[in-house]
Amino acid sequence: MATRDRYATANDTERGDVPTQFDSTFVWEYEDGGEALRDLYTKAKQKQWDGETRIDWSRDLDPENPAQLPDSTIPIFASDVFQRLTPKELASVRLHFQSWQLSQFLHGEQGALLCTAKIVQQVPSVDAKFYAATQVMDEARHVETYSRLLHEKFELAYPITPTLRRLLEDVLSDSRWDLTYLGMQVLIEGLALAAFASIRDQAKNSLAAAVNAYVMQDEARHVAFGRLALRDYYPQLTQHERDEREEFAVEACYLMRDRFLAEEVWETLGLPVEECVRYVDSSAELRKFRSRLFTRIVPTIKDIGLWGPKIRRAYANMGILGFADVDSEALSREDERVAMEFDKRRQ
After folding, report:
1. pTM for the complete prediction?
2. Tens digits of per-residue pLDDT, 271-312?
3. Under 8 Å between Cβ of 208 and 61
C-alpha cells in the first residue's frame, strides 16, 4: 500500500519543491583537512550498517501500544481529556501519537538526506565532502528504516508538520553552506538525538528501541561533523555575520520547541484540540520534557562560538541555558555503547 493511503490526514501534495540557488564548489587541494575530521570519516566508513540484516524485523508490535511506551510519554497524559478516554480511545491515542512522532522522524531524515547532499556540493573542503558523502548514505538508510517501520509495522503515517517543513525549507533554500550545517547538523540533528533517546530508553518493544538506537549511533557523528566544521569557521566571520547566525538559531529553536504540540493527532482523533494544546503549553512536566530536547544543541552552539547575549537570553527564557555545560562527547560515547549493547542482545 502506498504511503498516501496510510496517511491519517490529508497530504496536500505527493512532493514538495524547494527553490535553491547555490554554488557547487570544486576543491583542488586534497590534503587540507584536519586530523579530527579525517578520523570521523574513517569511523563513518567503518560503522556503515544494513537495516535489512542488523535489525530484527520479525518482531511484532502491540496494536494497542506499538512501541510499548509508558503513557506518560503522551503529551496530554494526566490532562482532563486523557482521563476521559475509554480503553479503546486510549489505544488509538497511543498508536496515532507514536505514528505521528515516527513520521516526523522519517520526514526529518529525508530533509537531512537532501541537506547533506547539498553540503557535499557546497563545502570548501575535500575531507568535509568525504564525510558528508558517508552521511548521505546514513540518511538514506534512516529514511529506509523509518519508512519500513511505519509501512510494515504501524501501517499508519502522518504528513510533515508545518513547523518542521518550514525549518527544512529555510535550511535548504539558504545559499550559505554554513547555514545548512547549522540548521541540519547542529539544530535539527541535535534535537532529533534527544527525541530518539526518549524512545530508545523507554520503549519495551525491542524493534522500536533498536531502530532508534542504531540511528542515534549515526546521528551522534553527524552532530560532531557540524561542530568540527563550524568551530573553525565561525571565528572568521564578522560580528554582524555571527549575529545573523545567532538569530537564525534562536528562531529555529522556537520552531522546534513548538513542533511537539501534535495538533494533527488530537484533531484526527476527534479530541478537543484547543484544550489539548492548552494543556501541553501549560504543563510544567511537559515544559521540562521539551526543554530536555535541547540537551544536545546548547553545548554545541556554545562550542562553535555562537554565544552572544541574544542567544544566551533566548535560551534562558526557554529554560535551556543550563545545558551549556553538558558533555556532548560523553553523550555520543554513550550512544555508541548502547547501540553495541543492542547488537550483543541479538547474538
Report:
1. 0.92
2. 999 999 999 888 777 777 778 889 999 999 999 999 999 999
3. yes
Q: In CATH, which superfamily holds the domain spanning 85-346?
A: Ferritin, core subunit, four-helix bundle (1.20.1260.10)
Give the span between the Cα atoms of 245 and 72, in whole angstroms.
36
Segments making up each domain of the chain, as ranges = 85-346
168 neighbors 23 (Cβ within 8 angstroms): no
The 3-class secondary structure across 106-160, one letter per residue, is HHHHHHHHHHHHHHHHHCCCHHHHHHHHHHHHHHHHHHHHHHHHHHHHHCCECCC
Write out the three cell numbers for 240.
Answer: 554582524
Q: Which residue has the cell 542504531?
A: 214
The values of phi and psi at residue 293, to 5°, are: -65, -15
C-beta neighbour count of 24 within 10 angstroms: 8
Series of mean pLDDT values for 10-residue runs along the chain (347 residues): 79 75 86 84 94 94 95 93 96 97 95 95 92 96 97 94 90 92 91 90 95 94 89 92 94 82 94 94 77 89 93 92 92 92 85
Work out whether the CA dihedral 70, 76, 77, 81 comes out positive or negative.
negative
212/102 Cα distance (integer angstroms): 10
